[in-house]
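Researcher: Here's a chain I'd like modeled. Treat it as a single chain, no partners, no ligands.
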Amino acid sequence: MKDQEKTKEQLIAELVAIRQQVDVLEALQIQHQQTEQALRETNDRFRLLVENVQDYAIFTLDSNGYIDSWNIGAEKILGYQEAEILGQHASCLFTPEDREKGKDDQELQKAIEESRSLDERWHIRKDGTRFWACGILTALRDETGSLRGFAKIMRDMTDRKRAEQQIQQQAALLDVTTDAILVQDSSDRVLFWNKGAERLYGLPAESVLGLNVNELLYGKVPPPLRDIRQSIAKKGSWQGELHQVCNNGQKIIVASRWILISDFEGHSQSILVVNTDITEKKQLETQFLQAQRLESLGTLASGMAHDLNNVLSPILMAVQLLMMKNPDEQSQRLLQRVENNAKRGAALVRQVLSFARGFEGEHTILQLKSLIIEIEQLVKQTFPKNIKVYTSIPDDLYPVSGNATQLYQVLINLVLNARDAMPNGGTLSICAKNLLIDDEYARKHIKACVGSYILLCVSDTGSGMSSEILERIFEPFFTTKEVGQGTGLGLSTVMGIVKSHSGFLKVESSVGQGTQFKVYLKAVEQTQMQPIQDIKLPSGQGEWILVVDDETPILEVTQTALELYNYKVLTTSDGNRAITLYLEHRDQISVVLVDMTMPSMDGSTIIRTLQTINPQVKIIATSGLSSNRHLAQTTGNNVKTFLSKPFTADELLNTIHSVLHMN
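Model: Modeled as a single isolated chain. Structure tokens:
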């Protein structure tokens, strides 16, 4: 009985335990149902989210790569509606060239092997347009690891791609430009250095990044950083000219523009610097300004020379007449000294005129070799023995068109300067060679033209010149010599003569290293030597000469000289009176001597009036300005010759005799 009761209790306990387990199972079932419901709701929300995302194309593929789902974002980005794309292979979204290369299959294979595949490439829309997309393809597997399909997410990155391409193009432009472009931080450390900077300064970018730009480009002469930084802080930019030094030590001038670069919050971040090399431009500007300055001084000097020539003309003629009348030794000695000083003054005036307008003597075809040999002999005979002379002249040296006397003066002035620069001796070199100037050289030198030239170099090993002196050596009356040792017109004369020969001049010098002058003269093809004729001093045969000049001393001395040599002379200082005298003595007057710069009625008007009276009249034009030679020539064939003041009695007599016996 007792065993039966225990069995009954055990059955009840077991029933209770079973009931509890049933309750647990029911609770678990309810929880499972709730979890499934939540999962379904989550899946529905995720599906709705995926389907309605418009910025991303999200779609799935079966295990063979065929599309089996398609969201709204895919419709927007790729242009296909869900109904028309489902069942198509994903390769239709690839470009033809990528399909030919098998990129579509490679992407699927990579996702299978590595679980996912990331790529950025061009894709094709339904309408055939291309877009750049970033995509992730993920392999989908079940619990057993079997492949169930693929999921792909794509985003249109075309705008970013185009922006990157634009940045790359701009970066390429930064490297193509000849300007040096660099970026420096607030501590002047280089952050960016383009190809233009590499070319200009001779420093590769990898060698300068992080270095102090001031130490790299300015050497011992730092830029005006204080002014630059104040301008940048106030205006955000600065521009001006800076002197810089390249890696090879060459000094350059740049037009520099500095621009402040700020971050998105407006904080100063760095400075963009753009430097343009204007060294060549500044050199040409300097040459142009110097030419303008010399031209202005030349106009002033020309007027002075005219007045001085009028003063010197009667002195020179009077001295020669006095020497004829006073043959005693003391008189001859004193008069010779006066004549020498007057001629020295006349030579000084000619130098002034050559500087002002260039010599206008007759040009013939010349060989410079003979001039150089003559100068060499003169130097060896007259220069100190501690100065050695070296010459180099090729046998095939081109001829030039020029005036032998003027080119001789160029050489004399240059070798004299070389001698004075070597008081303790040295070497004087005179070299000539043929030279062909090309477009590039002509572009850099304002006076040069493309063609054949003779390059004449005169070099010395003397004291040399500083850059400050070098800038002024061609200025008239500028000299570094002691008082009484030089006029300061030697190199101005050289410059004037070279310019009158359509040439140009360069000079290189440094203190203690000597000086080299380079004279460039245009070459010609043919050669022709001009014979020199000696004309004896003639006397007249009682011919009448009418002299017209506004300077009374010139009239008086000219009359004395002509009468001394058997001429009859009429003089006047007035143009109207000259016409009257010619009308009265037309049949007796053989030659008219006319000054071109007469007051009231100038020389040109007098000449034209005389030609109207007598078309056969013979006229000699005179002037203290060599530029009036052309003016006289334009008045007609009656002007037989031009006599430059100051002239001697010998020159006057020879000229009149030549005109009288002219056919």
